[in-house]
Design goal:
Rossmann fold; 33% helix; single chain; 7 strands; globular
């Protein structure tokens, strides 16, 4: 059996410096901020992931970043979950979401992959989608006519970069709230649209 109360928090992204600042890697960045804020060193490498163990608001957690490419995130995540005997509902996954405007957060208790290849890989590896998601909006404002695959592997715009620290901080707080107060409390606090201009570039992220 799993250790009582042990939770797994996964940040999704692509490994290596080439991808570190890209839109697709915001899951890694939120996890790094979470680790920094709560003094957890994510420095062990095993199972095909970088991970560390500690406490967030008294809750025992394993923080992990799969070190395979995004579309192969599932197998390392499953190996960690199996080693610690953590069930899917006790896992929280942080990932980018192009269908959510930049600056928005959306917490879901479970669901499908919504076209996200990292989440798709997790569902295939776990055999279900019964894990909590913290979706971090990267939006489509600067997509134009380019392929989505190219867009998510680009750095954020200069305008977005200014708002990024606030967005990462809010996403970190969302994970901590889920751990300490539960998923419903996290949804109530973080799913509503933030006040105009908060964590959004320019005029509150409006288009047109």
């Amino acid at each position: 059996m799993a250790e009582e109360g042990l939770r797994l928090v996964l940040g999704l992204g692509n490994p290596g410096p080439r991808y570190a600042a890209t839109r697709h890697n915001i899951g890694f960045r939120v996890l790094d901020r979470l680790a920094e804020a709560f003094g957890i060193e994510v420095g062990r490498e095993k199972f095909g992931a970088a991970w560390g163990r500690g406490r967030i608001h008294g809750v025992e957690v394993v923080l992990a970043k799969p070190l395979e490419y995004m579309n192969c995130s599932g197998p390392p995540a499953r190996r960690i979950a199996d080693f610690f005997r953590i069930a899917g509902p006790d896992a929280i996954v942080i990932h980018d979401d192009i269908d959510l405007e930049f600056g928005r957060l959306h917490i879901k208790a479970k669901g499908g992959h919504g076209g996200h290849n990292g989440v798709r890989s997790l569902i295939e590896s776990f055999g279900h989608g019964d894990f909590v998601r913290v979706r971090v909006g990267i939006g489509r404002t600067h997509l134009g006519g380019r392929p989505v695959a190219d867009y998510v592997l680009e750095p954020f715009s200069a305008e977005e970069q200014q708002a990024l620290p606030g967005l990462i901080e809010r996403a970190k707080d969302a994970v901590a709230t889920i751990l300490s107060k539960g998923v419903q409390s996290g949804m109530n606090q973080f799913n509503p649209k933030p006040p105009c201009g908060q964590c959004e570039p320019g005029n509150g992220g409006r288009r047109g």
